[in-house]
Amino acid sequence: MTDSIVITGMGITSPIGCSETTFWDALCRGKSGAAPIDVLDTTDLSRKIACQVREPIDVGRPMGRAAQLAVTASREALATAQLTPADLEEARVNVIVGTTMGETEFIEQRLTAEDSQWLSADHMRRIAAGRPGSIAQNVLEDLRSETASTPVHPQGSAVDLYGACAAGNMAFASAKQQLLNNECDIAIVGGADGFSRLAFIGFMRLRVMAAEVCRPFDQQRDGLFVGEGAVIFVLERETSARVRGATVRARLSGAAITCENYHPTRPHPDGDGLSRATREAILDAGLEPTDIDYVCAHGTGTPQNDAIEVKVMESCFPSGICFSSIKALTGHMMGAAAAVEAACCILSLEHQTLIPTWTLENVLEPCNLDAIQGAIRETPVHHVVNNSAGFGGYNASVVISSA
Question: Containing domain of residue 319, as a range?
């Protein structure tokens, strides 16, 4: 029998909270992280709201914004996993961080920099610090840093996984396979993106950004909010976790990645890629659609994507399913979107409570599913699907089950 992959640690750095307690409290109360942007002059822009991490972030050494967020979250994840220095020193530790934008500061600096600042010594340092792979590498190096409380030197690799807005779930799928193949003993996994001017202006130009309120699955939805943040998890084989006496938070039961070549920014009208990912993840978990209690939807709040996602859920769950989106609160955290939604799934399983789409008033039509709205729902929850989709036809689904 194949060893189960379990989640033993979780760290959250989000626009609605930088700890499990504050994050869950915000989800249950419907507290949004949306506010006027304070890192970009929006005077001449038609959109002015985003979901930023407002709490001070200081990791003790220079690195890009996405890496700072990821390192902060990884420290919490390792602490909650109760991994000792001895556990890490003797382990093969692979770090996989999904991201959409990576580190964009050195590119965006050119938008406002004087010529004398271009390719200066400081700018060259920023370019080197923002190289592909730098987010995961910073997480791994943080374990080895002499500034760590107890530096360790585990074997392992560090990879930034670029999968657009499905990157967080793609990191889960990659880590699951590596653990099952015995390529590592511990996987530090998640997603991270800092606030990006490029993403903000890009989504605004695509006319898919909400003016005042993000309303996923609502008749009056008009777009998304750009967000930032990082959520990191510790994954292990269950046998190893049990030997060291770790608390199992949840199980990563199934995962699937698909791709479609319909359009660079639009999903297939029938949701072909996301439908296949959903079905294959449930199959990978050894479950049936009727075993799934809830879908944490990608739910961006854009007119086209939400309608297609409802089609996907209706085709994958012919007997119906309850679903919701948390992006009205967190914003679209890009590469961290699926990861923050996975955190919501795990906490929902632990509390046996489902979070509604808080801003949902009038459910889009047609919709023959159970859209959770208005209040939290206390109900038995055993298996949930976390769905994500991104530009370029990336789709990834994971099944998370109770411990």
Answer: 5-392
- Residues of the chain with pLDDT below 70 are 1-2, 106, 109-119, 123-133, 146-151
Q: How high is the pLDDT of residue 148?
A: 60
Q: In sequence order, what are the beta bridge partners of 346? A: none
Please provide the size of the chain in residues.
Answer: 403
385 SS3 class: strand
Answer whether residue 403 is part of any domain: no
Identify which of 248, 345, 256, 280 has the alpha carbon closest to the alpha carbon of residue 5: 248
Quick one: which of 378, 34, 64 has its CA closest to 214? Answer: 34
Tell me the chain's radius of gyration from C-alpha atoms. 20
Alpha-helical runs (H) found in 50-162: 65-80, 85-89, 105-112, 121-129, 134-144
Q: Which residue has the tokens 């609605």?
A: 16
Assign 66 to helix, strand or coil. Answer: helix
CA–CA distance, 6 with 237 (Å, rounded to integer) = 6
pLDDT at 392: 83
- In a domain? residue 347: yes
Domain count, the chain: 1
- pLDDT on residue 126: 65
| Residue 34: inside a domain | yes
Query: pLDDT (tens digit, 9 = 90+) per residue, 87-123?
Result: 888 889 999 999 999 888 767 766 666 666 666 777 6
Cβ burial, residue 98 (10 Å; 0-12/13-18/19+)? buried
pTM for this entry: 0.93
Whether the Cβ atoms of residue 359 and residue 218 lie closer than 8 Å to each other: yes
**Rounded-to-integer distance, Cα 213 and Cα 222, Å:** 8
Please confirm whether the linkage preceding 318 is cis (ω < 30° from 0). Answer: no
Residue 104 is predicted with a pLDDT of: 83
In the structure encoding, which two tokens stand for residue 321, read together? Answer: 């399913």
Element of type H or E holding 353:
strand 353-354
Inside any domain, residue 399:
no
CATH at residue 285: 3.40.47.10
- Residue whose structure tokens are 């660079």: 264
